[in-house]
Structures are given as structure tokens and as C-alpha cells.
Design brief:
This protein has 73 residues and is an alpha+beta fold. The protein has 3 helices and 2 strands. Strands 1-2 form a two-stranded antiparallel ribbon. Strand 1 and strand 2 (54-58) form a beta hairpin.
Length: 73
């Protein structure tokens, strides 16, 4: 992994807060949607670890990661 990738992985961003609505929906702050190029209809994977919180990950990025792992096996 080159230095740029290592730096990007450690970089943290705070985009604001999201409120959970009655139907469990949230609005992702505009800056985060722009940074990660999120568009209406994009699928996100919701993951969590214990009671520490949740993580949203673009499904296509997870697929790319899984394919990379499978190719190396």
C-alpha cells in the first residue's frame, strides 16, 4: 500500500448529524453525499460492531473488496 492510500485510510471526517425518522430513515449530510459520490438509488451496506455504532459502506465498494480477496486466494 502506498503512502497516499495509508493517509486516506486514516483520514477522518465529521459531516454533521443525522436524525432517525419514524420509519427509520436518515438523511446523509450533503457534504458526505458529495464526498462519497452518493446518488439516489445507491445501495449502502449497514454494519456494526457490538454497541459501538453503525457504519454505512457503499455496496459496490464492498463488492470490489470481496472480489479482490477472492482473486488472491
Amino acid at each position: 500500500m502506498n503512502n497516499m492510500n495509508m493517509h486516506e485510510r486514516k483520514e477522518r471526517h465529521f459531516y454533521g448529524a443525522a436524525v432517525v425518522g419514524e420509519r427509520g430513515q436518515i438523511v446523509i449530510p450533503k457534504e458526505a453525499r458529495e464526498h462519497f459520490a452518493l446518488k439516489p438509488g445507491d445501495k449502502l451496506v449497514v454494519m456494526g460492531r457490538g454497541d459501538q455504532g453503525i457504519v454505512l459502506l457503499k455496496a459496490d465498494r464492498l463488492r470490489e473488496f470481496a472480489e479482490k480477496i477472492l482473486r488472491s486466494v
